[in-house]
Amino acid sequence: MQIHIEGSRLPGRVCRPGGDFAGYENIHVGVQRKDRPGELFGLLPGDAPSVSWTLDCTATITATTASATAATADGVEISGPYVQDRLGGRFVYLSWGTVDENGLFSMFRRAKLMFADIGADVLEAAARSGHLTARLPLSDAKGQPLCARVRPPVIEWSAAAPA
């Protein structure tokens, strides 16, 4: 299965301080490799008009409901090099950070895309079709890089192939 992440409304390459946000320059975002915060896939600038990543993974249907038409939320197990597996479930991290003049990335916040927040019918359809697509804005209401657990309706999950 492939996970397609489509991000829009990025915060920009420079975000000024405000509230509890320190402010940063040369902001970039990428997908964090499992258990390796310093290893990122598809690092892209925060001022891009939009971003997308395609992650190869494995989806296994482990249980079904009594109707045998949809997996329970725990009935589809997704694994892969960019799928985190912690207490509370499996998810993908989008890591925000700065890139210095030597190309060194320094993370300052992350967004967590939880598979537990995907409807069981969408998750099973994605396992069967081979496509799970997430669409989300990448800046919050203050215009800062989106962080913490990202839940619907902010993120929209579907079993459709990307556009």
Summarize the structure in words.
There is one protein chain. The protein is mainly beta and 163 residues long. It contains 1 helix and 14 strands. β9 (84-86) and β10 (89-99) form a beta hairpin. It is globular, with a radius of gyration of 16 Å.
Main attributes?
four-stranded mixed sheet, 48% strand, 163 residues, mainly beta, 14 strands
Task: Report on the biggest sheet.
Answer: 6 strands, mixed
Mean pLDDT: 91
**Count of DSSP-assigned helices:** 1
CA radius of gyration is 16 Å
Structural class: mainly beta
How far apart lie the N and C ends? 16 Å
Shape: globular
Strand content: over 45%
How many individual β-strands? 14
Low-confidence stretches are 65-72
User: What is the chain-wise order of helices and strands?
Assistant: EEEEEEEEEEEHEEE
Helix content bin: under 10%
